[in-house]
Specification:
With about 325 residues, the protein is α/β, with parallel strands linked by helices. The chain has 15 helices and 12 strands. β1, α2 and β2 form a beta-alpha-beta unit. The radius of gyration is 19 Å and the shape is globular. The structure holds 1,3-dihydroxyacetonephosphate (13P) and iron/sulfur cluster.
């Protein structure tokens, strides 16, 4: 505990000294979110993290999340130093969509508009016409569909299937998935619902269609927090990373929040409702990134950055 307090105090003073802001995703551990909150930083979903990083007047951004979030921050704010607690924190969607294979997929369908999820590398974004996050994907695809455009969607097949079903858009899907959300099980969820018949089920759309089908509310992390705040139920079964409970409980005090079950158990499932890469964002790693940038700084090649900026700016302008 003393060691934790040491890091908290040191990080607070280093953030001030360096005119730095800590920007944390809802899936990071509670002590990281608490620190972002206490220091005037931001805790949010990937869309708002991008916007906050771009608009705040800090010299340095510490992105507690996964690598694509750091890259997005750098693409939007090339003049800022962008640090991450660890550059090893990646995402199964990013890993599953390598730039060369994705470029070949796009080249094979030149008449399609390329829409990529934010959970991708800068190089994949640079190949896209649009970047979307889960909080704005539905509206952007609806808009493109209304213009009669055919869409290449990458990389999350579950989110893509959900959007295609909602909008009826013509979407060619890349077959990627999030190892955390892919573990949620409809069968186990139904069993749990029998134990809590009055609970509302909240589901992130990176979950399989069979799980989404059982949801009372489907949405991005921010949208799920709003649902917990506004729905009248006393209990919620939440199918997303358990890191969200920190903010969801603040937003909905007195409500009982329950983790949705995964198919495996601790011994067999890969992630068990907590992203292993988000979990790498510890206090010690944040402290280290602030004391010595080397090995923590996000750098994006300038020509690549300019290309990736175009579809990112398009999303931000659309959502403004
Ligand atoms: P949000 O855009 O909803 O924050 O999701 C990002 C993410 O990585 C979900 O797994
Ligand atoms: Fe990627 Fe899933 Fe982790 Fe989000 S929770 S960063 S989508 S692996």
């Amino acid at each position: 505990v003393d060691q934790q307090q040491f890091y908290v105090q040191e990080i607070k003073s280093l953030l001030k000294q360096k005119n730095a802001k800590l920007i944390a995703h809802y899936y990071t551990d509670p002590e990281i979110q608490a620190l972002a909150e206490a220091t005037g930083g931001c805790i949010s979903d990937s869309l708002e993290m991008a916007r906050f990083g771009r608009d705040c007047d800090a010299d340095t951004l510490i992105i507690a999340g996964v690598k694509f979030m750091g890259e997005t921050a750098k693409i939007l704010s090339p003049e800022k130093t962008v640090l991450m607690p660890t550059l090893e924190a990646t995402c199964s969607l990013d890993i599953g969509c390598p730039e060369d294979k994705f470029a070949a997929f796009c080249d094979a369908h030149p008449d399609h508009t390329v829409v990529v999820y934010a959970n991708t590398s800068a190089a994949v974004k640079a190949r896209a016409d649009w970047v979307v996050t889960s909080s704005i994907a539905l509206e952007i695809v609806e808009h493109l569909d209304s213009l009669g455009e055919k869409i290449i969607w990458a990389p999350d097949r579950h989110l893509g299937a959900y959007i295609a079903k909602k909008t009826g858009a013509d979407m060619l899907m890349w077959q990627g998935e999030c190892i955390v959300h892919d573990e949620f099980s409809a069968k186990a969820l139904l069993d749990m619902k029998h134990l809590y018949p009055d609970a509302a089920i909240l589901v992130h759309p990176e979950s399989p269609a069979s799980v989404v089908a059982l949801a009372d509310a489907v949405g991005s992390t921010t949208q799920l927090i709003k649902a917990a705040q506004t729905l009248p139920n006393s209990h919620f079964i939440v199918a997303t990373d358990r890191g969200i409970f920190y903010k969801m409980q603040q937003a909905a005090p007195g409500k009982i929040l329950l983790e949705a079950p995964t198919a495996g158990n601790g011994a067999t499932c890969k992630s068990c409702a907590h992203c292993p890469w988000m979990a790498m964002n510890g206090l010690q790693a944040i402290y280290q990134s602030l004391t010595d940038n080397s090995g923590h700084e996000i750098k994006v090649d300038e020509a690549l950055r300019q290309r990736a900026l175009v579809p990112l700016d398009r999303m931000l302008a659309f959502s403004a």
